[in-house]
Amino acid sequence: MVRFITDVPGFRAAGVHAGLKPHGAPDVALVVSERPCVAAATFTQNVVKAAPVLYDQALLAQNRTAIWAVVINSKNANAVTGPQGLRDAERMAQITAEALALPHGAGVFVMSTGVIGVPLPMEKVERGIRLAAQSLSPEGGPDAARAMMTTDTRPKHSGLAVELAGTRVSVAGMAKGAGMIHPNMATMLAVIATDVAVLPPVLDAALHYAVERSFNCISVDGDTSTNDTCLVLANGLAGNTPLQEAEGEAFAAFRDALTAVCQDLARQIAFDGEGATKRVTITVYNAGSFEAARQVGRTIATSPLVKTALFGRDANWGRVLAAAGRSGVAFDPQRTNLWFGDLQVLRHGLPVPFDEARALEILSERDIFIALDLGKGPGQATVWTCDFSYEYVTINAEYRT
Known about the structure:
There is one protein chain. The protein is α+β, with helices and mostly antiparallel strands and about 400 residues long. It has helices at about 50-60, 80-100, 120-135, 140-145, 200-210, 250-270, 290-300, 305-310, 315-325, 355-365, 390-395; strands at about 10-15, 30-45, 65-75, 105-110, 155-165, 165-175, 190-195, 230-235, 280-285, 335-340, 345, 350, 365-375, 380-385. The chain has 2 domains: about 5-270, L-amino peptidase D-ALA esterase/amidase (4-Layer Sandwich), CATH 3.60.70.12; about 280-395, Roll (Ubiquitin-like (UB roll)), CATH 3.10.20. The protein contains 11 helices and 14 strands.
């Protein structure tokens, strides 16, 4: 069974307490491959980028085929920290390489998450990295996932195996995120490991496809972080015929497996939204294209009026339709159909009388499904989000304290 990142052959991990979090909670994570990896990554599109993002982007521009490890600290984003922040990100990579005795030129990715604008307590971080290097284990995936958590209520894992032309290939990952979640991408970090043999441009293509349909289809609060990073490391230990083109059955099987893992992680992030009481799945049909459907879905998912109505178990369908109407996607309101669960509330642009008691029953469930048919033609997308509760305000009003 493939579930944790260390279930992928050739990967070890650790999560240790370095003193960044109180009460002994793990706060430094390390994931290491026994051999160099081909790497692909996507990053935040926020203009304000954290030091580790800038460091990783520069690293990836120079090194796509010899990435050995990723080191992660929580509790501090190392964002808006100036030249010292960049030096600290580079130092994290250097310490990791030294602690692991990696060969010259070995690449190490760096990720940070937490409060913006505070310098890293490098003495604690360095101690944590060295301890993590000593604690690496083939069973260390769960500890690493816990170490990268901030306001998450639980660690997030996903994995599966797939056959590529008769060769078994594993894909597994871990992620964190619960607030400041919105495309493109979302405060989320994700590390995905695979033993597939693949060329860098092909891994890029697979990751782009997967991210567009997963991490770029979630929202908690409409805020895009400074630190978002999704990294895929492929060590080639499966021994499959290397994927050299972004086409064909083998590529499609790998791409779809990667997408499935990313979508599972993305749902876990959206459904673990700060203070969330509802797990909300919004599917937009017949929007003319995937991009248009996703744009409508995102707008609904980020509407405070929709999210508060769902918290209040109010079938206020007008808020959903109004959000769709301001999404920037053109459609004919007279052709729209809308459902909460199996309860249709709008048919061909006109209200459908419905049983309020049944609506309350549907919206009292933990999982809520909204379906909107725009009646334009082929093109659909699913977006995942959560409600807004009193607790969300409390968490974010007191985040630094």
